[in-house]
Each structure stands twice: as structure tokens, then as C-alpha cells.
Amino acid sequence: MHFTLTFSCPDKPGIVAAVSTALADKGADILETHQFSDRTAHRLFMRLAFTTPASMEDIRACLEPVRTEFNMTMRLHDAAVLPRLIIMVSKFDHALLNLLYQVRVNWLRAEIVTIVSNHQDSAATAAQAGIPYYYWPVNKDNKAEQEDRLRALVSETKADLIVLARYMQVLSDAFSTEMSGRIINIHHSFLPSFKGARPYHQAFARGVKLIGATAHYVTPDLDEGPIIEQETARVTHSLSAEDYVAAGRSIESQVLARAVKLHVEQRVMLNGHRTIIFS
Fold first, then answer.
1. Whether residues 207 and 264 fall in one domain
2. Where are the active-site residues found (predicted)?
């Protein structure tokens, strides 16, 4: 069986040796390892990919004494189990289409269990892909009700991650907190610049020479969640605000797909308001 182990703990000598010894006792063959020691926080972050004839229950049991001794926050993932995604989209579908393609060609090893939208525009796309589609219009009067439906859908589908692929509704503070670390948004600017609505038009008004896109975890603070991935493109004075929007579509699609891939492969670890990326 193929597993991925991630953990963080207060940094001190003997941690790596203890984990490696415990895994070796179960016949593990370590295929990949990354580690980072935050000297400011005095905390160690580590990711290991390994194969072993042992079951997940056996691995958990052998690691439990190590986890307790070093006060670890630990996660063990069976690589054979595909993460389950809910994709949320509004009118612009470029990021959704790229995610569907990357899953289809197996570059992104995940299962899209449903697509949710506040518009009907992507219903045909979902039908063609054989994915259930939920059209849930949102307004100020039904926002809480629709979030309750989304909460129930996460439970019903056993979704591991919600991906906001240009979903142009702000989730409530309560839902964002409840789903902390399980919602990824693509924002169409190089954060922390140009937060909020119409960032390309904000960038055009300021005459910037670089535009970009940022994939980040959703928190109650709008567009301020921990950043997973970013990319930029050069623009000039000769371009219009609409040209900025057009140039940004491919950046957004690529950045979001890379961020989701990093997440589902257990390569992202939260370190306060920052992320550790083991790419």
C-alpha cells in the first residue's frame, strides 16, 4: 500500500529517526521525503511518501507512541483513495473547464463529485461530464439557507475539499471557519494587491505592469487566507481592462489547478497564516 504521512511538531533532536524507525518496523520503503524547520516558531514540518505491506490501522498504531512523545499534529493518507471535490462556479467557466480536463487526463488525481453554481451556465458542461449539477441562486434573503444546503451536500458526498473556481459569492464567516483548510479560492489578482471585486479593473486604473492570480485557502477575512500558489503575466499601457481580464483567464486556470493538485497530494501544510509547500 502507498501512503503519505504529514506531521508538524515542536522541533528537537530525534524526531526523524523515531518516525523512520517506526515505519521501518512495518517494512516501509520511503519513496519521498521533505522537511522544513521553522527557526522562528521552533517547529518541524515533514512529509513522507512510502509503501508498506502493513494496513493503515497498523501504521497508525506504530506511529501513535511517536506522535504522543513528540506532541505531533499528524495526518496519514492512503494514496489509493481519490480525494472528493465539490467545484463551485458562477458565470466564468474557464477554471472549471481546466479542472475537468486535468482530472480526465489523470494529472489531477481526484474525483469531482458535484458542481454547484448560482447560475445555470455550466449545467450542460456538468451533464456532458456526467457530474451532478446543483443550481442554487443566492441572494441576501436565502444565503444562510443555501449554505445549509452546501453543508449538507459536503456531508452527503463525503467531500474532502470545496474549490471555488471563480464562484463570485462570499461565504459566511461561520462556514469559512467551519471548513477551515478545506476550501480553496482563486482570486484574480496577485494578492495582497487588489483585493475584492473587479481586481483587473483596479490594476488597469493603477497602470500596473504585472497582473496575476492567487489560489488561497478561504478564511473569514476576504481574500486574506493562506496563499498556496501564485503566477503573474506582464501587461503594457496599450492593453485595455478587458485585455487584462482575457490575459488573466489562463493564469487563473493554471494557478488553481496547481493549488488543488498540491492540496490533494498532501503537499500543503499550514503554518499560522503561511503555508509550507513541499513541491
1. yes
2. 223
Nearest to 45 by CA among 15, 18, 77: 15
Q: At residue 173, what is the residue type?
A: D
pTM score above 0.90: yes
**Residue 73 forms beta bridges with which residues?**
8
Q: Are residues 62 and 99 in the same domain?
A: no
Q: What's the Cα-to-Cα distance from 173 to each of 23, 146, 184, rounded to whole Å?
A: 40, 14, 15
Domain that holds residue 18: 2-78
Per the annotation, the verdict on 243 as an active-site residue is no
CA angle, 232 then 233 then 237, to 5°: 130
Could you say which residues of the chain have pLDDT below 50? Answer: none
User: Counting every residue, how long is the chain?
Assistant: 279
Q: Are residues 267 and 180 in the same domain?
A: yes
Query: 3-state SS of the chain: helix, strand, coil percent to 5?
Result: 35, 30, 35
pLDDT in tens, 13-60: 999 999 999 999 999 999 999 999 999 999 999 999 999 999 999 999
Split into its structural domains, the chain has a count of 2
What's the DSSP call for residue 253?
H
- Beta carbons of 99 and 83 less than 8 angstroms apart: no
Q: Could you give the CA distance from residue 28 to residue 13 in angstroms, rounded to a whole number?
A: 22
With H, G, I as helix, E, B as strand and everything else as coil, classify residue 69: helix
Active-site option among 25, 221, 223, 243? 223
Label the pairing between strands 111-117 and 133-135.
parallel
